[in-house]
Structure formats: structure tokens, C-alpha cells
Amino acid sequence: MATIETEKLTKVYGKDETAVIALNGVSLRIGQGKFVAIMGPSGCGKSTLLHLMGGLDRPTSGRVIVGENDIAQLNDKKLTELRRRKIGFVFQYYNLIPVLTARENAALPLILDGIKQPEAHERAAEWLARMGLKDRINHRPDQLSGGQQQRVAIARALVTEPALILADEPTGNLDTRASDEIAHLLHRISEQWNRTVVMVTHDPRISAHADKIIFLKDGSIVDETQLSHDDDETDIVRERMEEL
Amino acid sequence: MFTLKLALRYLSGRKLRSFLTTFAIIFGVMIIFGLNGMLPAIEKAWRQSVSASTNQADLTVTSETRGVFDANAVGKVRKVPGIAYATVSLTRPLVVPPTYAPKTKDGKPISSFMLNGIDYESASDVRPLPIEKGRSLLASEKTVLISSNLAERTGLKIGDTLRLPSTTGTTIFQVIGLVDTPPTPGAEALYIRLGDAQRLFNLPGKVNTIEAQFSPGSDREEVRTAVLNALGSGYKLGGNELGSELLASMKLGDFLFNMFGVLALAMGGFIIFNTFRTIVAERRRDIAMLRALGASRGTVLGLILAESLLQGVIGTAIGMAAGYAMVAGILVAMGPLFEEMAHIQLGGPTFSTSTYVAAIGLGIGITVLSGLMPALSASHVLPLEALRPPMAEVVRKRIGKGAITGIILIAFALAGLVSGDIGLASLGAVLFLAGLVLVAPALIRPISTLFGRLLAIAFAREGQIAQGNLVRQPGRAAITASAMMIGLAIIIMLAGMSTSIQSGAMGYLNKSMRSDYLLMPQSLVLGSGNVGAGPKLIKELRETPGVASATTLRLATTKANGEGLQVIGIDPGEYPELSGLVFSAGDPDSAYRALADGRAMIVNGIFAAQNGVKVGQTLTLQTPDAMREYKVVGIGGDLLNAKLGTGYISQDNLAQDFNETADLLIMANRAEGASATKVKAAIQRIVDKYPAFTLFSTEEFREDLLETYKGIFAAFYVLMLMLAIPSLIALVNTLGINVIERTREIGMLRAVGATRNQVRRMIVAESLLLSMAGIAFGILSGLWMGYILVAATKVSGFVMPYFFPYSGLLLSIAAGLIIGVVAAIVPARHAARLNIVSALQYE
Asked: Which residue of chain A has the CA closest to B296?
């Protein structure tokens, strides 16, 4: 069963003469436990696609189906609920609340969902431990490195046990070593915990960790590549990117 | 729970700013709450003293007018079935001049007394005096019973004498016995024969209180009703309320301070609004992320509101505590004064439920209300914003709906001002302020261009960038300028009012006290405690060589159409010669003539305004024995009685209808060519025989008054400057946020060669530009509101010309510019110290 599916997804910004087609009839299906990277040059519509999949933006036409819901049909309240329970987000700039500790940040979605603090904190601590931050749970964001902050953000995305994780340039703000760690982590999330991970990136080294890469150009899917992870596939991806 | 925790974390994460924004709320609540605890405390002490001295008989009856009535009325009471005994008394407060006042052992003069003129024989049936020592009967004239407490404190013994001022000059009483009355918190009680009291006050045959004892077994309610029926109209149950003049002055002060408190809170609200707007702008990404994670709009709204609620609660709590401390301090400081002057022992602050409700409601209400709009805008932040890289806010041209609405509001405001109707004009002032706030964003560009040229002289290079920074975000610049505007507008408004009051009062003084000499009673306000003078004083005065003319003022209290009114008796022929009322309606000459011709009255503005009295109308006055109709022939007043509802009638009518003949204030003119020193010395010799009076040359009196006003207004200006503090906070906030937001840009400026000093100067220039815009707005609206306030006092009956507050204007311009520079210090230093590399990488 597909975790997420899009049907002829189209997004047009502006009207008439100034209209820009950001996304043009994109259809795709991503099954459970898959790790998919979306790549493409600047302005290809990859971020728009991710926003629509996460219900952060509404399509001009087409459908986004998460589980059994067509999220384009949901009102703000239902959509908010869906985001809270079924989807986890990882942002480029971590977006942690500066005045809360790592544990409190990770527990945020649970608290927002009305779960009692002790339980929420316990579950957040578990996920932080899985992210290798066991001894950092009481640190504030400004006491953590960029990679650590992003791992807190990932724990926050996973704490509600969503089936789908959406990551928007999760390594865009990190150095090479931290980027590799995060990429490994995302891979593990799909493999070990059977979550669907969709990641937008422009870094071939990072996308090489994915099971599949979808290449986007001018708002349409132009190619898909399955990766076997038998050897280092970074160069293959890089070549493909350069062609676009 | 969670929202509260997060709110608390955010608040404590920026302690200084939280404190500064909360300060305005603390300040406002402190004033509103504290001062409302002061007046009731004093009132309570008054009441206690009054009730302690009267409520001992079964029944007390006094005149509705609070004045005197014929002693024969007691005959009617004695005939009522169920009344066993009844007695009459003439009980009045009396202030004794310092030279006559008995002194305590440590030298403190006791000058305030409650003089009880009692009919001793009948009084002992109704309310026997507990004689402790000495003779129990006031058998002979000019004897006095004093309390053993007074004897103990002052060392007065039986056989000693006590000098009291009287309408004939001085009367010497012999202490004949000690009464063991419990030490009341009010004035010391003195008991003398009724006849002596009537002579002392020049009220032959008059009393002001009837007290009675019920027969055993009678129905109290029934007897009370029967007594009132027997006496006819004009009487009420219960003692006379004293000290109403003092309370009236205090209430006026209380009202002014409450106004001030509300203004401070309004300022606070504005600052909080400004702060929360910046907070929401700063945390846009946090909020967007929360929305992306699944926080509902309601949660976001609640989060911001929780923060403002928390600030409101903390500010209100601290404000109330500070208010309590302030008033407790004031009461302690005033305690000795009150004890000496009025023999009142002040307790701690007294707060009514409504004071709690008002302080809590206003403090928390205004804070939460101010947070509401920013909270609403926060709840509309799109989750998508969390994913976009941060960008400087886009310039939004705001010459849209807001500015147009603002222009319409200002147009209405102008129409209101032109209409001449005070209600519309004051509504106009509010509309004008609101309109200015709305138009401000559109005005920021032209105004900053205008002042930018000025600034270019001092800040040749940085000025232009600073100007660009403001124009780029006209919305926020306008908010800050408006906060500054409101602060300065209030200063200028109050300055306009105080200048006008001061100049206006002096104008009044010059008009209504034109005489060369004033013989003032002990207590400046005409009223209780003054003994007055009989006809001999004015006669002697008129016979003094060098005195061309003299006239007097007399006083009674009454109710007109059910409203309290003090009635001043003047001589319609002489009074206009020596003094004169300031008229706002009616023709003075014919009005004075009408007073002489019959039951006619000139009412002062405050009474006319509060009760909608017009010239030509007839007022029904309660007199001791009947209701009398007086025709209003003019509206006008004098300075001393400006704040009390007052009517002026002829002294003949006052004597006939109100039984009052004592002169309370005397004015005299020097004959042309007479030597000032000789005349003054001659008058002084006469006044020496009447210790109840003090002689002033009007010149001296004016100087004294001017000094008092100056003192009051100096304190007033200090308070006004306190109101400017919140503007400072607003400016620091905005500049601080601007620097944080433009970190990368400042890094870029430094990278391309701007020196630290130039960056610093840029921020200062920005701050100065903002203040100048604020000053310009503030002057406009402040002058307007000041004018309205002065015009509004006209409605309340105190006719006052508007005087332009030059000094206040200069003060507020100076204050504004200083605030502008001071506010920039911290943000400018922060900007100048930024590390170029990390600033460029700042996200």
C-alpha cells in the first residue's frame, strides 16, 4: 500500500500573464518504508512538491492522498490534525524553539496533541536516545551543534510515530560530516523503523543514500533512478544531475 | 499548561525587555490602585470620628441643608408619642488660630475642635455626659467642659481658661469640669452652654441638631417616622456630615490621578502592542514551524495571549503591591498632619471591591487586549514560512485602506472641532489620534524625507541609509513613532492644561479678588471650622480712616432640586465694586440688581454644568423651615469656590431664609491717596481682635497662591516625564529588533567598508528620525487634546481661556530628542560590535 500518492498534481503561482507553473501534473506513488530523494535544479518545483505533499500548501489541481485522505479536501483544522499525527517534518534550518530544551522540543508535537507531559517527555527521550543524543536531552538549542540540532528536529518529526517523514534540504545548513550522519539516519529511519521518507536535496552525496531518486525539471518528473547501494553511487547521481 | 510554560520561558528569556514593557502596566496599576486606597482610608477615618461623636442618642435629627434651624422645633418632637426626652444642640467644628490653640506637652498645637453648644438640663436626660471631675452643671455662662484626654495631653486644669475665636472677637471660657468621653479619632469635643454657642457663632435662637430618647417599649421605626412627620419637610435622620469640602477637593485630586493612571495604562497598552508585534515578527519562523508540526491556529493564538496574560498578571500584581506600599507610605507621612489638623488617626489603606476589580480589570484587560491583535496576526502565519529561507520583510505599500480610513477619521475629527460642540470635539480628539495612528505609515516617508534633510547636516552619509531603513518598513516605524506620539501628546496635552489652569486661575483671581485687602478665615475654603464675624467687624473696618469700602461673604449650605449646594451671601451693591464674579451667562449688572430685588441667585459654572441649570430657570432651595424658589439670573463664579457647586444670593435673603449672618470672608479697598502701610497697620489692629481672621494684602495672597501652583505643577511635570518612559522602551524595542533583523545587512555594510562608528551613527540617525516623526505627531495631537481638555473644563463650569504651552512644548521636544538618542545607545553598540563574518552567515 502506498503511504503517499499524488495524482496530476499541478501548482500555478500568480495569474494570467504573470502565472508561473511550478508543478505540472506530477503523479507518483511512494510505498511504505521507502526512502526517496527528490532532486533537480533550482526552480524545478521540488520544494513545491514537498509542500503540497505535506499539506503546507494547496494544489491548483490534482490530488494528494496520504493514507486514506485526499488532503486537498481537508479544512484547516483537519489538515492541522493530519500534519500533527501522520506527517513528520524536518526543515533546513532545524526550527527548534530556542527557549525549550532538546527534550521539550522533541516532545512538542505530542504536547500539541494533548498527551500528558510525563509520557510525552518519556517518548521524546526515547527518540533522542535513538538519535544518539541521550546525554543532551536537557540542553537548549544554542548549546548544541548544527548536526545535533538537526537530530533533535528528526526526533521531533518521529515522536508521533508518523508513517511519513518529509525533509526539506535537511543537510543544507550542515558540514560534510554532519550531513553524512543525517543522511545515514534518514536511511535508517526507513529501513529500521519502516517509515516512508521523502527528502528534497540538491546534494548528490546525500541523495545517494536513498532507495530511489526522482528527478524533477520545470515542474515535471523527468527521470527516476533506483539505487542498489552496492557501491558508491554518488557519481552516477552527479552525472545525472549535470545532464539536467 | 504547555502554552503557559512556553510563555513563561519566552518572557524570562528576555528579562529586560519583559520588565521594561511590564513597567508601564505596573506604573498605571500602581497609580490607579494605590490612590483609590487613599481616599477611602481618609474618608473612613472621617466617618469614624463623626459617628463616634454623634451616635449616642436613640434618635438624631438634623436639617437637610446641614445648616441651622429654629430651636423651637424641638417642641414638636417632644409632643410625638414615644419620645421620652428631647434636646437641642448647636454642634459645629471650630478651628482655633495657632496663638489660641492649647499645646500638648511636646509643643504640638491642638487647633481643631468640635464645639457642642448644649442645653445642659435637657441634654442630661437624653445623653448624660460622664463627668469625671469638677462640677457637672454648666451653671454659669462662659464655662466649658473638656475631655479628660485633652486635659491630660495639654495639662489644662479645672479653673484654667480657654480662648476661642467668636463672631465678636474672642470669648474666654473657664474650664469647669472634665468629661470622660472615649478618645475619639476626630476633633476634641468641647461642651459649652447653648446660649454661649449661639453668641459665639452669632446665631441667636438657632440650633442644628435635635437628639431624643425613646420611651421604653415604643416602636422605634414608628417613632422615627412620626418625628419626621411632626417636623415637616427639611429634616433628616442622622448627624451632619462634616468635612465635605475637604473631601470634595480630595475627590477632584483623585479624579485627576485616576485620569493619569488610565493614561499610563493606555500608554502601557500601546507599548505592549508594539512589543508583541515585534515578538510575532521575530518568532515568525517558530510560529510557522509550530503550525507545520500541527499546532492549530487556536494554539498559536493562545500562546501569544498567554504571554500577554502572564505579563498582565505579573504587572498588575506588582503594580498593586507597589500601589499599596506607595499609599501606606503616603498615609504614614500624612498621619501627623491629619492628627494635628483634624484629629484623625489614619488607618492603613482601605480598598473597596470595585477598586480591586478596576485595577485588576484594567491592568490585565489592557495587556491582553493589546496582545490580541498581534496574537491574531500570529495565528495567521502560514506553516510554509518555516520552510522558506528567512528574508527581510517585503516593503508593503500601506497607503491602502488603513490610510484612507485614517484620513476619513481625521476629517471627522476636524468637523468635530469646527462644530464647537464639546462632545463632538472630544470625540474628535480620539478619532484624531486613531486616525493619526492609521495614517502614520503613509506619513513616515514624507516626514522622514523632511527630517532627513535636517539630519543630513549632522549625519551626512549614514542619514540616508537610516532614512531608507525607516521607509522600508513604514508599518513598524509608524508604530514606534505612534508610541512616541502618544507619550509626547500626553505631555503636551497636560502641559497645555496646566498652563491654562495656572494662567486661568490667576486671571480669575485678578478678576474676582480685585480688592486691596483680604480678611481670610482659618480654613481657606469657606465652610466648616470657621467661626466668622458679627456685624461689628465690618462696621469697624468701614470706619477705619483710609478704607474706602468693604464687603463680606457669608455662607450657608442647602439642597437645590435635591442636589447639594453651598449658598454664598453677598452684598449685591458692594460686592461688584470690590470683587466680582466671572460670568459665563447672564448680564452682570442686571443679575446683581436682581439679587437685591428678591429671591434670585447666580449659580457657578460647575453647578450649572452638572445639573443643566440655565439662566431664567427656577430652583427650589431647601431652607430650614420651607422650600423656597430662587430664580437663576446668571451663571458665574469666583476662584475659591470653583470646584464646589455654589449659588450666590443677597445677604438679606441668606439671613431671612437660612438664618446665617456671620461674615466669613471680608474684602476691603484702600481710599485713594491713603498710605498703604498706615491703612494695613490700622486694619491689622482690628483683625488682631478677631483671631479667626488673617489679613492678607491681595498681592501677598496672589503670590502665595502662585507659589502653591508652581509647586503642584512641578510635581505634575515629573509625573508627566514618567509617562515618557514607556516611549523610550518602545523606541529601544523597535531599534533593537531592527538591528537583529538586519544583522546580515549590517555585516555586509561593514564588509564593504563601513566603519563601526558609521554603523553606530546609522542606528542613532534612525532613532532620531523616528523620534522626530513621533515628536511631530505628538505635538499635533497633544495641542489638540490639550485644547479639548481646557474646553471641556468650560463645560464643567470653570471658564478658562486656552493658553499655549510654550514651555511644555519645548520640554517635550527636548524629552523626545533625548529619548531618541538614549534609546539608540544599546542597539547601536550591539550593531557596531557585530562580527563581520558571523553577521554575514547569520540566518
From this structure: A80
Q: Could you report the per-residue pLDDT of A25-55, keeping only the tens digit for each?
A: 889 888 888 899 998 887 788 888 888 888 8
B289, B299, B382, best to mutate vs chain A, most A CBs in 10 Å: B289
The Cα–Cα gap between A197 and A153 comes to 14
- B396 touching chain A per CB within 8 A: no
Cα B164 from Cα B158, distance rounded (Å): 17
Which of A74, A94, A95 should one mutate to test binding to chain B, selecting the residue with the greatest count of B CBs within 10 A? Answer: A95
Q: How far is A228 from chain B (nearest CA, A)?
A: 31
CA nearest B647: which of B686, B608, B601, B606? B601
Residue B398 has pLDDT above 50, yes or no: no
- Cβ distance A95 to B286 less than 8 Å, yes or no, reads yes
Residue scoring higher pLDDT (B240 or B306) = B306
- CB of B383 within 8 Å of any CB in chain A? yes
Is the pTM value of this prediction over 0.90? Answer: no
Contacts of B382 in chain A (CB under 8 A): 56
Distance between start and end Cα atoms, chain B: 31
Chain B contacts of A113, Cβ < 8 Å?
294
Report CB contact under 8 Å: A156, B1: no
| Cα–Cα distance for residue pair B146/B131, rounded to 1 Å | 10
Q: Which of A77, A83, A173 sits opposite B292 (nearest CB)?
A: A83
Residues of chain A contacting B3 with CB distance shorter than 8 Å: none
Q: Check B289 against A91: CB less than 8 A apart.
A: yes
| Count of other CB atoms within 10 angstroms of residue B546 | 18
DSSP B606-675: HHHHHHT--TT-EEEEE-SSSEEEEEEEEEEE-STTTTS-EEEEEHHHHHHHH----B-EEEEEEPTT--
Neighbouring CB atoms inside 10 A of B123's CB total 21
Question: A56: distance to nearest CA of chain B, Å?
Answer: 6
Select from B211, B195, B186, B54 the least CA-distant residue to B123: B211
Q: Which of B193-202, B748-757, B795-804 has the highest mean pLDDT?
A: B193-202
Give B746-767 pLDDT, tens digit per residue. Answer: 776 776 667 777 778 888 888 8
**Side-chain half-sphere CA neighbours of B17 within 13 A:** 23
Residue B337: other Cβ atoms inside 10 A:
11
**Which of A51, A77, A99 is facing B387, going by the closest CB pair?**
A51
Handedness of CA A24, A29, A33, A36 (dihedral sign): negative
Residue B291: exposed, middle, or buried by beta-carbon count in 10 A (0-12, 13-18, 19+)? buried
Can you tell me the mean pLDDT for A205-211?
86
Is A108–B293 a contact, with Cβ atoms under 8 angstroms apart?
yes
Length of chain A: 244
Reported as a pLDDT band with limits 50, 70 and 90, residue B423 is: low
Which of B:694-753 have CB within 8 Å of A? none
Scan residues 555-614 of B and list those with Cβ closer than 8 Å to A: none
* Segment A112-159, tens digit of pLDDT: 788 888 898 999 999 999 888 889 889 988 888 888 998 899 999 889
Q: Which amino acid is at B27?
A: F
Minimum distance, in Å, between the CA of residue A77 and any CA atom of chain B = 7
DSSP string, B238-260: SPPP--HHHHHHHHHHHHHHHHH
The residue ranking higher by pLDDT, B597 or B432, is B597
Residue pair B569/B655 in contact by the 8 Å Cβ criterion: yes
What SS3 class is residue B514? coil
Question: ipTM of this model?
Answer: 0.73
Q: Show residues of chain A in contact with B383, CB under 8 Å.
A: 56, 83
